[in-house]
């Protein structure tokens, strides 16, 4: 491990840049799925222990890690990185391609962990020089991508552990493949969607395909239900609200000459506001009730997922200021991040927090989207992520003379 003293603000950052790249490549090469991040966790703990200044807690959400630095009176700031990978077969041809077949860091969590370790290295150096006024908790969170048997991702377990009660605010970043390295995207307020999934089972009466009049065909009923579901967005939702419903799976029947007794429809509900979230669930219930007039019945199950990511406006302003101080020519895009989900929203429901998106696309190359089997990043973006997070956390901690990294 590189000595802390060479990571100082006034020293060349070449070795830190190289180390952050090494950390990212290690995580990329050995990805682990949600709630299975045992080796990832052990590696993170080993790195953090090498800094010699952190109090380390483990075991939150099975493999989660919290590293705390107490620098005296002052605010307590959290910095969160997610740890888990996705069940994807990687198609990149690089020396550090995934060694775990069918598992891949296709959402940038390898970069998130490496960047936050880089921040921890820099902060440790400041601390050893007596230049930290406040406390910092580095939160390495498992299971952002998937839920356990109780329907929970990793973030709720950290909240249940009491960590947010000790924090004044919290920061995070996300890799952004639709922006080139050297750009960031920020947004005040709701920036990513509430996520709910639904399973609607239409119940009818099966029968012979040659005698449809003797059955209560649930597939026929489905044709009306689907029109109703897709019509909700265009005719029942206020056009000024943000929300959508999508069907991902329809399952029914096994043979061409038998009308099944039931049809299952599985889909997702996305929204930005609590009001729209509740409205869409109620509207799906009303659409399902039309099966009664068609001679059938239904069963509707709603799986509540992540809440919307709600960025604190003041913290977003600080991130923008740090970005422009860092590089006056930096492209700062101000726009919502989309209809994807992010369980960092659990944290921002509890305390002021903000996530920004960090441009990581190579110039003049096609976009390689998040969750794709060829997702990759320009590793030059890693040091930018470190610098912006360090600058922002120092701004949040103060004093003024340390507010520019």
From TrEMBL:
Superkingdom of the source species: Bacteria
Bound cofactor: record note: The Mn(2+) ion enhances activity.
GO terms (BP aspect): diaminopimelate biosynthetic process
GO terms, molecular function: metal ion binding; N-acetyldiaminopimelate deacetylase activity
Residue positions binding Mn(2+): 107, 109, 145, 174, 371
Transmembrane segments: none
InterPro entries from the UniProt entry: Amidohydrolase, Bact_exopeptidase_dim_dom, Peptidase_M20, Peptidase_M20_dimer
Names of the cofactor(s): Mn(2+)
Record carries keyword Cell inner membrane: no
Keyword Transmembrane helix: no
Domain Peptidase M20 dimerisation residues, every copy: 194-288
Pfam families: M20_dimer, Peptidase_M20
Keyword annotations from UniProtKB, A to Z: Hydrolase, Manganese, Metal-binding
Protein name (record): Amidohydrolase
Classification lineage: Bacteria, Bacillati, Bacillota, Bacilli, Bacillales
